[in-house]
Each structure stands twice: as structure tokens, then as C-alpha cells.
Amino acid sequence: MSLQTLSPVNFKSWKELESLSKNEFKLNALFESNSKRFQEFSIQNKDFLVDFSKNLLNEEVFEQLINLAGEADLKNAIKSYFAGDKINETEGRSVLHTALRTSKTNSAKVEGKEVFEDVQSVLTKIKSFSDQVNSGERKSYTGKKFTDVVNIGIGGSDLGPQMIVDALAYYQEDITPHFISNVDGDHVSETLKHLNPETTLFLIVSKSFTTQETLTNANTVRDWFLKSATKADVKHNFVAVSTNISAVEDFGIAKENIFPMYDWVGGRFSLWSAAGLSIAVSLGSKKFQDLLDGAEDMDTHFKTSEFDNNIPVVLALLGIWYNNFLGAESEAIIPYTQYLQKLAPYLQQASMESNGKSVDRAGVKVNYQTGTIVWGEPGTNSQHAFFQLIHQGTKLIPSDFIGFKNSLHGNSKHHDILMANYFAQTEALMKGKSKEEVHKELENNGLSVEEIQKLLPFKVFDGNKPTTSILIDELTPRSLGKLVSMYEHKIFVQGVIWNIFSYDQWGVELGKQLAKNTLKDIESSQIENQHDSSTTELLKYYKS
Ligand SMILES: O=P(O)(O)OC[C@H]1O[C@H](O)[C@H](O)[C@@H](O)[C@@H]1O
After folding, report:
1. What residues make up the domain containing 535?
2. What residues make up the catalytic site (predicted)?
């Protein structure tokens, strides 16, 4: 079944939300007038507590947002998504990364065709390969145990696996992970300079196996390897993950060393597939399964919960409220753990590549905002970097604060300080600091009336800045899987309501073609392609 193609701006709920958005939403007053606000605007699902009460909305707005999901036929869209319908219509594909973590139902269908057994057989291959590497049973070409593993890939074949491996470093096996993504030769050389070809395992990950950066890097790495080894040794130290089996074989990788991917799994949602081989190798097969199980927990919650009690749905609707009705252009992701440093860059691809579209599902240019700008950094570091702008700047930036009840290494003194900041910031962003409070503070500090008058306007905080607190028991492979799946479904819901196709990326494809032509101009003696005068002069300057 195809997704419906109605423009959301014609929905009754959209019009209601437009008129509601003209009201003022003062968080302090909303809390004062409703002692149950936290209970009404929070959702707990096992180890996840999502408190969205510090957002600029009241019961009426929430009701209309839920109506919006209803009018957009979200219920049937979710059915189509999990049923493996070809909802990625412009590429003629299903969107079934959820099938990669399906374990409970023993069934996952792509357009009616059962794929469960096939998915499980690849998963078994991933697990036994990573177990063999970690136990030392699978050895390098000189018979040594692998000490390092290098993932060579870009975009979805890099960001997801890298974010997970980084986030779960606490659980790491005795092998050091590395990631080569950028075609920047300095990045490659910098990584290789520390590595020994005799003990390094290379994973070339490319769904298409045509990506310029990945193939260039893979060739460079293989040439480096061949300085110490022979072509026959490649099969011991190189494996590949791809849908394009013949291109991988042409590259010189043996069939038994190829892990398949599926065209019904988008690159930016592929960390659950063999594209996550670096995760399985770095963390061990058990932890990889835990990650999948956590994602499946969230899939089940998303599929079965009513919209007003459904974490991804509510997060998606809040995003739409800010983006389409209150004029916000971006949203910040602030995890209070250094382990999640790469979460924002990962979500940038997942979200912005998916919903950065301006033509609707009927092929018509939209007349409303779609995908937001996603950015962020862990707290407390970000408090000393960009929080000033969130507190006192002119922009509206709704922010997700992600925190954990327990630290991993058990340093509770540090953890309490970290979490005190987590709670204090959302409270301060909401409450602000009134003129009266500032006045009193300055008076207590002994400032004169004149000095107080001069300083006061700069020390006032308007407050009323919205945040959502996502409080999780502990950062584990399982809870991380659940968190990532939560954001994946948020992205899906927003795409459904915005009436856009979230699973293609024609804008990126254009960039790939353009670079090829420009490279020809750099490599040949003449600039043959037609460029604007700025680009022509820049190219001439570079070539000189
Ligand atoms: O895995 P590959 O085929 O090499 O693709 C790597 C990346 O290429 C492009 O940037 C696409 O837009 C991404 O979605 C994809 O993840």
C-alpha cells in the first residue's frame, strides 16, 4: 500500500494549530495552573522516562497534534512501514530496517515475501565471524591474532557504526576499532601510521560499492597492505559488506568474505545489518544482539502504543509544532554523557538526509517547512560553548536532554555533579530569571542603585525555553538500541505528516555526479566543463 499524498496544511487540526500558535505559552504559568502537568505530559516505558512537560504546549495543542497524526493516517502508515510495503516509492523499495531486529514474531516480510530466515542466517554469520575474530580462531595472514579493526565506509556505512562503537566503548572487547571515512588522504595516512598490517582487520562497508570515497580509501589501504603481504593474503585481512556482490568480487574479495546487505535497508538505517560488523567485532556478538533487542523493544512500543502515549510519535509531533507553527528552525540534542559525543552527527544524517525534502509525495513543491536542522554536543561541555545563545539569544531552540540514572564506572560523585547540571539547566531554561530576582541578587551583592540599573537588563533571563528530558536507567547496548530506534521512528512519523518521501536522497546523488566532472577538470590539462567564473578561477588557482 502507498502512503497517502494529502498536504497537511489542509487538515482541520493544522488550521486549529495555526490559530492556537497565536496564543502565548508561558511555562511557569502552565505549571502553576496544573499540578498534574508532569504526569500528563510524560511517558514512562520500562527504563525510559520521557518528560515533555517543559514544552510550549497545553492540553488543547496536544489534542490537536494527536488529531494531526490521525488525519495524516499515521496508523496505516505504520502498518505499511512494518509490513514491508514499498514506501520508498521514488526508489521502488521497502523500508525494513526493523526486520533486522525482529526476533519475537519469527516473521518479517518484504512485500509479502518472508525474509526472516535469510536475515537470521546473515546475523549468524556476523556473530560467528566476530566471535572467531575475538577468540583468535580467525587469524591474520601471518597467523597472528587481530589487535585492530578498521571500518572503511562513509555516510550510513560509517556514522551509525562509529557512533555505536564510540558510545559503547565501556563494553569493548580486546580489539581497537578505527574508522576511515573521509577521502582526505591525510585522514587515511594518519590512521594507518599506527597500524600493523599483520594484525589489522579491514572491513570495507559500502551498500552500493560505488561510493567514490570508500573505493578510493579501500584501494589505498589495500596498496598499503600489499607492501607487506601478497594478493593471496588479502582474503585473510579484508572482508566486505555490500549489496553489490559482483563489484566486491572484482575488487578481489573472496565470496566467503562478503556479508550481504539488502536494498530494503537504507544506508542511514543500516547499522543493524552487516554494515554494523565493526560493532559486532568491537563489542562481541552478545552485545550486538542486545543492541538489536533494545531497538526491537522500541519498535514494539511504537507499533502498539496509542499516539498520546507513544514516545516517537510524541517527539515527532513536538518537533512539528515548533517547526511549523512556532518558527523554530533547529533542534538540539544534548546528551549528558561523553560517550554519546557522536549521537548528534549520526542523527544529522538520519534526520536531515531523510526529511530535507521540498517536494511532497504527490510531486508538488511544499508550501510549509519540512526537516529541521539537528545539532548538539554533550553536556556539560556545551554549557560552556553554545548555551549562552539558547538562554539569552533570539532563536527558539527546542532541546532534547538525554541523561542516565547510573554512570558506568560508578564514580557517583562526578555523576551527581553531571546530573545536577542536567536538571538545573532545563529548570533554568524554563524559569529564567526575572527583573525582581536580578534586582534582589545585585542588591544583596552590595551594588548601588545606579549600578543595579545599568547591569539589570543584561542579567535578566526571559526563560520559557523548551526542553524534553529523556532519562534512562543506564547506557547499555540495549538502551542505546532503544534510543536510536526511538529517533528513527520520530523521523518516520515526521516524514509521514509532512507528506514527503523520507527514504531517498537525490540531493546527495547530485553531489556525487558533480565531483566526478570537476575531478576530470583537475586531472586534465584543460578545464573542459562549463563553470561559473568564480569556480573556474578557483580551479585555475588550485591547479597552478
Ligand atoms: O554505503 P554506500 O553505498 O557507500 O553509501 C554511503 C552513503 O552514500 C551517500 O552519502 C548516501 O546519501 C548515504 O545514504 C549513504 O549512506
Report:
1. 509-543
2. 353, 384, 512
Catalytic residue status for 353:
yes
pLDDT digits 0-9 by tens, 429-460: 999 999 999 999 999 999 999 999 999 999 99
Say if residue 52 is in the same domain as residue 129.
no
Strands 42-45 and 48-51: antiparallel
Pair (283, 311) in one structural domain: no
Residue 206 lies in a domain: yes
Question: Quick check: is 22 catalytic?
Answer: no
Same domain, 236 and 168: yes
Ligand 1 geometric centre to CA of 157 (Å): 7
Average pLDDT over residues 478-493: 98
Q: Does the annotation count 384 as an active-site position? A: yes
In the reported structure, the alpha carbon of residue 209 is separated from the centroid of ligand 1 by a whole-number distance in angstroms of: 9
Note whether 275 and 234 are same-domain residues.
yes
Q: 288, 322, 348: which is the final residue of a domain?
A: 288
Please provide the DSSP assignment of 471-539 as one string: EES---HHHHHHHHHHHHHHHHHHHHHHT---S--HHHHHHHHHHHHHHHHHHSSS--S---HHHHHHH
The angle subtended at Cα 435 by Cα 429 and Cα 436, nearest 5°, is 110
**What residues are in contact with ligand 1 under a 6 Å CB criterion?**
153-157, 206-208, 211, 214, 267-268, 353, 505, 508
Residues whose CB is less than 8 angstroms from the CB of residue 293 and which lie 6 or more positions away in sequence, other chains included: 101, 103, 478, 481
The number of the ligand 1 atom at minimal distance from the alpha carbon of 267 is 16
- The residue whose CA is least distant from atom 12 of ligand 1 is 508
Catalytic residue among 15, 113, 512, 543: 512
Going by C-alpha positions, the residue among 276, 293, 286, 234 that lies closest to residue 122 is 276
Which member of 353, 415, 439, 465 is catalytic?
353
Per this entry, what is the length of the chain?
A: 544
Structure confidence by residue, pLDDT tens digits, 369-381: 999 999 999 999 9
Q: Are residues 188 and 236 in the same domain?
A: yes
* Domains in the chain, number: 3
We report the CATH number of the domain holding residue 143 as 3.40.50.10490
Q: Whose CA is nearest to atom 13 of ligand 1?
A: 155
ipTM of model: 0.97
Domain assignment present for residue 454? The answer is: no
Same-domain pairing of 264 and 329: no
